[in-house]
Write the structure tokens for this entry.
Amino acid sequence: MIRFFFLAPAALVFAASIAQAADMAFYQLPPGSFPHDVAPAPDGTVWFSGQSQGFAGRFDPKTGQLEKIPLGPGAAPHGVIVGPDGNAWLTEGGQNAIARVDAKSKEVKLFPLPKAFAGANLNTLAFDKNGIVWFTGQSGIYGRADPRTGRVDAWKAPKGPGPYGITATPAGDVWYASLAGDHIARIDTATGAVMVVQPPKPGVGPRRIWSDSNGMLWVSLWDAGAIGRYDPVTKAWATYPMPQSKWGAYAIYVDDRDRVWATDWAANAVQRFDPKTETYTTFPSDKKNANVRQMLGRPGEAWGGESGTDRLVVIRD
């Protein structure tokens, strides 16, 4: 069922199906909202980064209410997540800072990067088990911010520009994916040092990364049109080509049932991959050029931001 809501080369062959049973809903946002990343909150609302207009958006699917919280002069937020404190945290590229938006007061607090790391082109962020938020910058940096002390540390990435997606595993390890650098890497959270892991083959373009409940790493391979799985224990890769596309695997997200969601730009769809059966289920958008850049969810819901249509999309099952 599809619902609409408005405010005023494969090595293996994988079965694929077009979803019918799941409930796919779209929520229209005001023109120019450009939802880049999304972060569903435990209270039922959904945060998103309004990159083009420099705000943090908070949308209530039940009432249709949208709050737009300005982040400051020249703001251009990219990533957004809900932290362990219940507040929204964003990579604020326009001000070269990590931003925290208080969920109750809407107060915005900035954690600026060190002056030596100007123009970081901040991308995404993730909290480790100690409450430290780690982040990436596509200009070639990665770093961390301590919400308790306000201290921000940053390092130059070992292979230059490209750090993009980032994730924390249940064991507390932090990994990032480098799109331009064509690798994934584990950050030593104590020292900040990095261990680089090469992709399954050169030129696949790891874009985003997510850990499942067992610490297995799932990676969207943008230039290969595939999902990659990396086992940090055995150091082995497995690759699962998209059912329709040879490029354009952008987002990656693993839900509470360890199913893997990915966005397929070439097919203009969201793909759900079941690791148990190694099959895909396809959820196509009803509008062209949806351009879902990131996904996140909560039990029973997978959310994305259609940056190309100024909409939020959710698949409930």
Observations:
- The longest strand covers residues 292-298.
